Amino acid sequence: MTGIDGVAAGEGGGGGARRRGCSCTKDDFLPEESFKSWGNYVQALKDTPTRFKDRLLTRSLDTTELYEIKARSQHEMKKNLSWWDLIWFGIGAVIGAGIFVLTGLQAQKVSGPAVVLSFVVSGVSAMLSVFCYTEFAVEIPVAGGSFAYLRVELGDFMAFVAAGNILLEYVIGGAAVARSWTSYFATLCNRNSDYFLIVVHSMPKDYGKLDPIAVVVVCVICILAVLSTKGSSRFNYVASVIHVIVILFIIIAGFTKADTKNYKDFTPFGVRGIFKSSAVLFFAYVGFDAVSTMAEETKNPARDIPIGLIGSMVITTAAYCLLAVVLCLMQPYPQIDENAPFSVAFEAVGMSWAKYVVAAGALKGMTTVLLVGAVGQARYLTHIARTHMMPPWLAQVHPETGTPINATIVMLAATAIIGFFTDLGVLANLLSISTLFIFLLVALALIVRRYYVSGETSTADRNKLIACIALILASSTATAVYWGVSENNDWIPYVITLPIWFTATAGIAVFVPQARKPKVWGVPLVPWLPSLSIAINIFLLGSIDGASFKRFGMWTCVLLLYYFFFGLHASYDTAKESGENKIGEGWKKVEEGQTDSISATAATAGVSSNQAN
Question: TM spans, by residue (predicted)?
C-alpha cells in the first residue's frame, strides 16, 4: 500500500483500514470482504487451507509495521515519554502482587528461605528476555510489542498465537493484582485478608470467592488509562516514588529485626523447591514487556528504551532479592503468612504499626502495576487490531487524548470479570505459562533476526540454522520434561541434554554467519544469551503444575477456533486489499537482492501517511 492509498482507505476509500470515529456498525468489527455475505464467508472457509498457508509463510517487514500498520489507527499516539518515564513505568509495572503476595506462599510451602534464589533464577531469565525485547523495541518502536516482533520474524500465525497469550497474560495479571489489592486493603482496615470477599458455596472452590472491590479498582484504573498516557505517567511516577520509599522502609526496618536462626534450614524443600518457586515467581517480573509497547510514544527510542527497560529491571531484581531475604530473616518460614506476608511478619516481631505502612505501600505498588498494565495491554490489542486479526474497531485512537480508548475499555472489562471470580493461585500459574511461552518465542525470533535475512542467507546456512534451533528447543524441552516428571535427582540425563544445547548454540556461533547487525543497540553475546533465555524459559515451564497446562491448552484451542473462523480470513483480506499480501513479490525481490528499493518505497509510503494524518 502506498501512503496515498493508506490515507484514502483511512479517510473513506472503503478499504479495510477504514475508520469511522466512534461509530459501532458491523463494518467497524467485520469490514472485510469475507464477511460481506454468507456466501462470501462460506467460500472463505473453503479456502482456509490456502489462506492458512499464505499467513503461515508470510512474514511482515520492519517498515510495514512502522508505517502502514500504524497508519490504520488514523490518529498518531503522542510522543511524550522519556527514559525517565520508562524507568518509572518499568518499576511501577513490575513491583506489585508478585513480591507482596506470592513471596509468602512460596517461602512457606515450596522453597523456604531459599526463595531468594528463586528470585535470582527468575530475575536472570527476565533480564535475558529484557535484552531481547530491547533490541526489537529499538528497531521496531511500535505499540504492538512482541506481537509486531514475531510478525516480522516468525510470521502471522505464530504472532497470533503469541498475541492471544499476550492478551491472556495481561488480563490474568491484572485480575491477580486486583484481587491482591483487596487483600491488602483489608489488612489496612485491620481485617482478615479475605474479609471483603463474598463466598458462594455453590460455586467451585477456585471460583467461589467473589471480589467486588477488585472490579471497582479496575474501573478507576480504566478511567485513568483512557484520559492520557502522560497523565498516567505522572500518576505512576508519584505513586512509584512512594512505593520505593516504603520498600526501603521494609528492608531497613526488617533487617533491624532479623534473626539469623531463621536461615538455619535454608533449603528445606531442596533444589527442586527453588526451581518450582522460580517458575511461579516469574509472575513477579511480568510487566516489563508493557514498557516495550510504549516505544511508539517515546521521544528517542534508540536511547530511552534500553535505559528504561534494563535500568528498571536491575532495580527491580535487587529490590526483590533484598525483600525476600528480609522476610525470611524476620520469621521462621513455616509461620510466614500466605496472603499478607510482610504485614504479618512486622506484627510478629512487635512492630504492629508497621503493617499499615506495608499495606499502604503494597496498595500503591499494585495500583501502579494495574495502571501500567492497562496502558500496555491496550496498545498490544490496538496493534493486533490494526492487522484485523481482532476487530479493527479496537484499533481506533482517540484524536484528543491520543489513547486507544476502545481497546482499553474492552481489556479492562475482561480483567474485571476474571478478577471478580477467580482465585489468585489459579491466576498466577496460568499467567506464568503464557509469559514464559511468549518470552521464549521472542528470544527465538531474535536468533532468526540476526542469522536469517532473505536474499542474503544461503540455503546451506539457513538449513544449519534450522537444525541448530531444533536441537536447542529439543534439548531444552527434554531437560524440562525430565525435571518435571522425575522424582529422583539422577543427573545422567542432564549430562546428555545440556551438552546438546551447548553444541547446538556453538554451531550457530561458529558455522552460521550473522546476516544482520543491529542498527543502534544490540544484545551482546548472540546467540548465547537468547539461546540461554530459551533454555531457562522452557526449563521453568517444566516446573509448573499439570492443571495449569490443561487450562493453557484449553485457551489455545479457543484461540485457534477464533483464528480459523474469523482472524485468519479478516487478516488475509486486509493484507490482500492493502497490498501487504504482495509481500510474496517483496520476498521475491528481496531474494534477488533488491532490499534497498523495497525499504525505501515502504518508508516513503509511511512518511506520506504520517503527513496526511
Answer: 81-102, 114-136, 157-178, 210-228, 235-255, 275-295, 307-333, 353-381, 402-421, 427-453, 465-485, 491-513, 520-540, 552-572
Task: State the DSSP string of 156-197.
Answer: HHHHHHHHHHHHHHHHHHHHHHHHHHHHHHHHHTTS-TTTT-
User: Residue 78 class from Cβ within 10 Å (0-12 exposed, 13-18 middle, 19+ buried)?
Assistant: middle
As a whole number of angstroms, the distance between CA 380 and CA 395 comes to 10
Whether the pLDDT of residue 272 is over 60: the answer is yes
Buried b (16+ CB within 10 A) or exposed e, 524-537: eebbbbbbbbbbbb
The pLDDT, as a whole number, for residue 70 is 66
Q: What grid cell was written down for 328?
A: 525470611
pLDDT tens per residue across span 10-59: 333 334 444 444 456 777 788 888 998 999 999 999 999 999 998 888 88
User: Alpha carbon 193 to chain centroid distance?
Assistant: 28
Report which secondary-structure segment, H or E, holds 311. Answer: helix 301-330
- The CA distance from 437 to 373, in Å, is 19
The phi-psi region of residue 233 (left if phi > 0; otherwise alpha if psi is between -120 and 50; otherwise beta) is alpha
What phi and psi values does residue 138 have, to the nearest 5 degrees? -70, -40
- Give a three-class secondary structure readout of 226-245: HHCHHHHHHHHHHHHHHHHH
The span from the CA of 231 to the CA of 225, in Å, is 8
Q: Which residues pair with 298 in a beta bridge?
A: 81
| Grid cell for residue 291 | 514498557
Cis peptide before 391 (omega within 30 of 0): no
CB atoms within 10 A of CB 21: 9
pLDDT tens profile 69-98: 766 666 666 777 888 888 887 887 777 656
Residue 608 pLDDT > 50: no
CA distance 236 to 230: 10
CB-neighbour burial class of residue 100 (10 A; exposed 0-12, middle 13-18, buried 19+): buried
Element (H, E) at 199: strand 198-199
Task: Confirm if 541 and 278 have CB atoms less than 8 A apart.
Answer: no
pLDDT tens across 167-218, in order? 887 788 788 888 888 877 887 788 877 788 888 877 877 777 888 998 999 9
The label of the residue with cell 510522543 reads 79
Q: Are strands 198-199 and 209-210 parallel, antiparallel or unpaired?
A: antiparallel
Q: Per-residue DSSP letters for 97-155? A: HIIIIIHHHHIIIIIGGGHHHHHHHHHHHHHHHHHHHHHHHHHS-STTTHHHHHHHHT-
The burial class, CB within 10 Å (0-12 / 13-18 / 19+), for 17 is buried
> In this predicted model, what pLDDT tens digit does every residue of 491-513 receive, in sequence order?
788 889 999 999 999 999 999 99
- Other beta carbons within 10 angstroms of residue 332's beta carbon come to 17
Q: Return the amino acid letter for 420.
A: F
Helix (H, G, I), strand (E, B) or coil at 298: strand
Rounded-to-integer distance, Cα 340 and Cα 322, Å: 17
CB atoms within 10 A of CB 195: 13
